[in-house]
Amino acid sequence: MNMPISGKPPKKLSLKENYALLTRGLGWETSYESMDKVFPQCDFEGIKIHDWDKWEDPFRLTMDAYWKYQGEKERKLYAIVDAFQQNNGQFNVSDARYINTLKLFLTGVSPLEYGAHRGFAMAGRNFKGAGASIAAQMQAIDELRHAQTQAHTISHYNKFFHGMHDPIHMFDRVWYLSVPKSYFEDAMTAGPFEFVTAISFSFEYVLTNLLFMPFMSGAAFNGDMATVTFGFSAQSDESRHMTLGLEVVKFILEQDPANLPIVQRWLDKWFWRGYRLLALVAMMMDYMLPKRVMSWSEAWGMYFEQNGGALFNDLARYGVRMPKYHDVAAKEKDRLSHETWGIFYNYTHAAGFHTWVPEEGEMKWLSEKYPATFDKHYRPRFEYWRDQQKKGERFYNKTLPMLCQTCQIPMGFTEPDDPTKICYRESHYRDNKFHFCSDGCKDIFDFEPEKYVQSWLPVHQVYQGNCFRPGTDPTAPGFDPLLEVLKYYNFNVGKDGGEYLDSEDKKHWEQWTGKPGVSI
Amino acid sequence: MSVVALKPGYTGEIKDRVENFHGQQLLYIGWEDHLMFCAPLCIPVPPTLPFGALTAQIIPDLYAAHPDASAIDWSKVEWFSSSQPFTPDLSKSLADNGLGHKASLRFRTPGLTGIKGSCS
């Protein structure tokens, strides 16, 4: 239909014209239905937008440029993944313990990429401005690509190691995966403005370096070139997402002064939710990488306290202040990873990856990185666990833990000013008690209790009898509730989780590579 | 405002109300200064359970793997309910002791401070 009648080819649009037509020309004022009916989610959060044309996307990406760039990235990635597979690259990683970080990534992070795809598609649909819609749409496609490339890359490891066979099924059921799942579903069930503030700004802009740097540098340090490559392939998209995140917040704040208190509350909330989610990354950095990149404490200092601090200084001109409880995160930085690894050491028999006591050399590293806390608080329990293991009595916690109603993590975090006392917080609402791991999580609940009373807390769901496969009879003789829950998770019981030293992964690694394994 | 929602008057279903636990209620138990058990524990119990059953059987079983467990002197234990000091009547039920669904019970064992005194 675009064939020119004269036979001359049509004038090719400049990038600027192309972008202008895409992001301004595509939007129009509706006449058959009111704009409010067409965009019903644009107002209820209280955000006021007066002029959507003020939306500036610094990348000004057009669709043809987008497909061209993304296609090139895909070709490069899959060439490297092919080579990795043909060369049995999985046997060149530092140690089979490293593979557990991939299990955590595939089951805990890749489904978030898919969630982001859905979330940005919905946000794109709900914004009245075409510029913002287009940016959200491109990010939605990026996120789908990330979920796919991660599944494709890590699927190779699935041929050799346990725990990676059913990530989406696990994501919807497994107790610790409810932490990332609830985080993302909290964002997706908010309005479009809260969603983009939460994910584009608080996560992508403020915290993403603390997710991607540890995983991708960790992969590089530990010889996993396949993961490094999908990381790089995603990273160029991430820089666009980060820019979008900053633009989102500036745009909202510049539109109306009444938006500031709403945005500040979201920044407080999503800083805390994101920070709690990163507890999984903290333990990965300090405990799960056989070759370590830097400690969690160092990463937090560099990426949040320095870089994040500078960012919030820049935003001060809009009236934005540092997120509430950033001081608590600073106080926790010398204990977060140790407390979190302790949780997984306690319950690894019900997890889809292995845990272990750090080797002596690794404990020395931990003592050096955490001079104020490791030897005093954590080394004694690891040494005790190691001694128990030598006696053939590896410690497993047989009773399900109390969970935080908001972040859904077992209540293993300690008082901001006392690392020996569990931090307990409580609220009463509609004749029920609700419990929290921190003031940050309690504040989030207290502002919107009607949302968080609905939390699907895995421990409580197990006790309600909702975590068994259909047809399971809990009254049958010899009924083993834990075993049945693990089957409901679709775990290979006894192979996916538990102590690393007792694992088939370790046995296979030594058998296939001829490399010496770790021991106690 | 208790939720920011598209639909005015939106309310949520409380997922963990006591009726969903088949006659049981949830009790959280935390042992102060013993963080080798990484977090407080959650168990379903009948509301009629005598408090004494916790000290006689249930709590010792839960924490049996801890080297301090056999040294607990229950007559010296300090109790906390929802973080407030609390004196239980061992002969009365949980309900009669004021411990309802999702009660948070903590106990401190003076003189016992975990592995090598590290509160582990």
UniProtKB/TrEMBL annotation, chain A:
Keyword Lyase included in the entry's annotation: no
Organism encoding this protein: Panacagrimonas perspica
Signal peptide region: none
The YHS domain, residue ranges: 414-456
InterPro entries: Ferritin-like_SF, Phenol_Hydrox, RNR-like, YHS_dom
One Pfam family matching this protein: YHS
Gene3D superfamilies registered for this protein in UniProt: Ribonucleotide Reductase, subunit A (1.10.620.20)
Keywords: Monooxygenase, Oxidoreductase
Protein name: Phenol 2-monooxygenase P3 subunit
A molecular-function term among this protein's GO annotations: monooxygenase activity
UniProtKB/TrEMBL annotation, chain B:
GO MF assignments: phenol 2-monooxygenase activity
Keyword line: Monooxygenase, Oxidoreductase
Keyword Oxidoreductase: yes
InterPro entries assigned to the protein according to its UniProt record, in alphabetical order: Phenol_hydroxylase (IPR006756), Phenol_hydroxylase_sf (IPR043010)
Keyword Oxidoreductase annotated: yes
Protein known as: Phenol 2-monooxygenase P4 subunit
Organism in which the protein naturally occurs: Panacagrimonas perspica
